[in-house]
Each structure stands twice: as C-alpha cells, then as structure tokens.
Write a structure and sequence with these properties.
10 helices, Spore Coat Polysaccharide Biosynthesis Protein SpsA, Chain A, 14 strands, single chain, 3-stranded mixed sheet
C-alpha cells in the first residue's frame, strides 16, 4: 500500500485525461503515491481510452454517474492509502506538489484536510476561483477564498504564501486523511456536486479537526470542466446545497434565523437574475428552494445525530455586504479580528 492515492474522478473528460494525466504521472513520486482514475459511466469513450493509453493506471468504473460526491465515495471505498487526494481532471500539477502537503499533515495529526495553492491555468499569475489559497465562509454561508472574493481574482504576488488554517479546502485538489474520510461517510451523496467539500470540511471542524492550506505546493486549474460557469444546473446545485450546508452545520442557536435570512437574500438574487435576463437561473433558484424544503426532515435528523458548534475561521460578518456595498475586493483587506478563533 502506498502512502498516498491520487484519485482523479472523470465524467466525459477524455480530453482532459489526454492532456493532463501525463503531467500528473510525470510529477508524482511513484514511490510515494499511486494514481487512480475513477470513471463515472462516461459516454465519451474515456474508459476505453484509459485501458488503451494508460494500462498501468488503475481504472475504477462506477456503474452510473452519481456526481462528484457519490463518484468519489464509491471509488475511495475501494482504495487503501493513508491519504486520499481528490484531484480534478483539468488540473496541471507541478514538481513535488505532494510532498509539502503530506509533510505538513504528518506533522500535525489534527489536520483532517489540506489543499495546495490553486492558480489559473490560463492566467498563471492569478488565483483560480475554486480554492485560490484556501477557502473561508461567512456566518451566512457565503464562501470565498484567500485570493478570491466573488468574481474578483487577485494576482498571486506571494501575499498568501503562508501555510495557515482555513475553513474549507477545495475539492479540486483536496488532500484528506483516508481513515477520517471513510469513518465519517465521505462526501454527502445528496449534494451530487458543488459545496460538498465545504460540507465535509465543516463536519470535520465540528468534530474538532482543522483544515489547512499549504501554498508551498501549487497546481493550475482550468475550472468549469464538467458544468460551465453559466449553467443554470450549476445555479440550482449551488443554491440548494448552500442552504443544506448551513442547515446541517450551523450551531442550533443560529441556524433558524440565518437560514431564514439566507432565503430572503436568495430571493433578492433570483429577482436580480430575472431582471438581468436570466430566466433559467431565476427558476433554478426557485427549484433549489423547494428541493431544500423537501430535504428538511432528513437534514433535521442529521442535526439531531451530529452536534454542531461555533468553529474556527468563520468570518463573522456579511461578505456580500463588505464586497458589494463597502467595496472590499481583496481578502487581505478584511479585518482578521472578524474571523472567529475557537
């Protein structure tokens, strides 16, 4: 058994496998890590391509497309390692990208998950949307990153090169302790895709573990490889899963009024979509809300069985207000005293 298993989940991403898998193989220490491709019942010939082009790479074929969450859960239950690395197929890694993260997690057994610095594949001096230099969340459930507030992507000038505790690590390239992942059920299957890694990290924090970013490792991410940024399907998943996320994990004394406040803000967003010509996105928000309401009994059961608390590194203000009304565009402009330290 190798110490690390790098697991690439693929769905109709043959072109990404062809372009990026050789780079992962070249820059991954074969003595330290195995590489596995898990295919979510692709229809573009990805599985046949893997067997013909990369017969030395282990291929796990899931019988159906269960999305990011179920796809990884099915695959990782079949793999033995101390650390799993969930790696998107559209990522270019760099030499020695694994070692710094593993050394950090080896030194601190309380770190449940960790990510490298994520930069844009097309603009290599800029942070990439999905993760940047570590993920955070405000008290109302809005995620953001060191290096990315909403659509504002900062240039990487080394300003976030310190390894630090964060709130969540991106699923685009997340190192996670295999025993914790398997013991606590992995990603939430009901999320399908989007925000499932935030949910997992939040659950780990509720259990007393920490999440880190290790910028001494860096990778380059294309992003939007499966669902384009303009997809109404992505809008639906983001709004539905965000409400589920905060309902599941917030402390009891905050959960009901914050969820109610978020529903109100979501309606504001929906109306903005409508007047901006985004009729499909408007309906996506409405459908997301009804899907969330249907889930409430299941989510309430989860809350009864899994106590929650106020966890570290949550931003205790409203990042939407700060960004759009106060004009804050960079993570470094936020007041560090407004992040909760447990």
């Amino acid at each position: 058994m190798k110490k690390v298993a790098v697991v690439i989940l693929n769905y109709n991403g043959k072109k990404f496998l062809e372009e990026f898998l050789p780079n992962v193989i070249e820059n991954t220490n074969a003595g330290l890590a195995d590489i596995v491709v898990a295919d979510n019942a692709s229809t573009d010939g990805s599985a046949d391509f893997m067997r013909e082009r990369f017969p030395e790479i282990r291929l796990i074929e899931n019988g159906f497309n269960g999305g990011f969450a179920t796809g990884y859960n099915l695959a990782l239950r079949q793999i033995e390692a101390e650390y799993f690395v969930l790696l998107n197929s559209d990522i270019e890694v760099t030499p020695h990208w694994i070692e710094p993260v593993v050394e950090m997690m080896d030194a601190d057994k309380n770190i449940a998950a960790c990510q490298p610095k994520i930069l844009s594949y097309y603009e290599k001096l800029k942070f990439e949307y999905a993760g940047a230099s570590g993920g955070f969340i405000d008290r109302y459930g809005y995620p953001f990153c060191r290096g990315r507030l909403f659509q504002n992507l900062e240039e990487d000038l080394g300003q976030y090169d310190d390894a630090c505790e964060v709130f969540w690590a991106t699923g685009a390239c997340m190192f996670v302790r295999a025993d914790l992942y398997l013991k606590y059920g992995g990603l939430d299957d009901s999320f399908f895709a989007h925000m499932e890694e935030i949910d997992f990290c939040w659950r780990m924090k509720n259990l007393g573990y920490s999440i880190y970013c290790c910028p001494q490792s860096k990778v380059y991410h294309i992003g939007g490889g499966t669902l384009p940024k303009s997809s109404s399907r992505k809008t639906y998943l983001n709004f539905r899963n965000n409400l589920s996320l905060i309902y599941k994990n917030l402390p009891s004394k905050h959960v009901f009024w914050i969820v109610a406040y978020r529903i109100l803000l979501d309606w504001v967003a929906a109306i903005k979509f409508l007047f901006g010509g985004g009729l499909k996105d408007f309906w996506a928000v409405i459908r997301a809300h009804f899907a969330f309401y249907k889930r409430i009994p299941t989510l309430r059961k989860f809350r009864r069985e899994h106590p929650s608390c106020q966890v570290s590194m949550m931003y205790m203000e409203n990042i939407v207000f700060d960004s759009f009304l106060k004009g804050v565009k960079r993570y470094s402009d936020l007041d560090p005293k407004k992040f909760f330290n447990a």
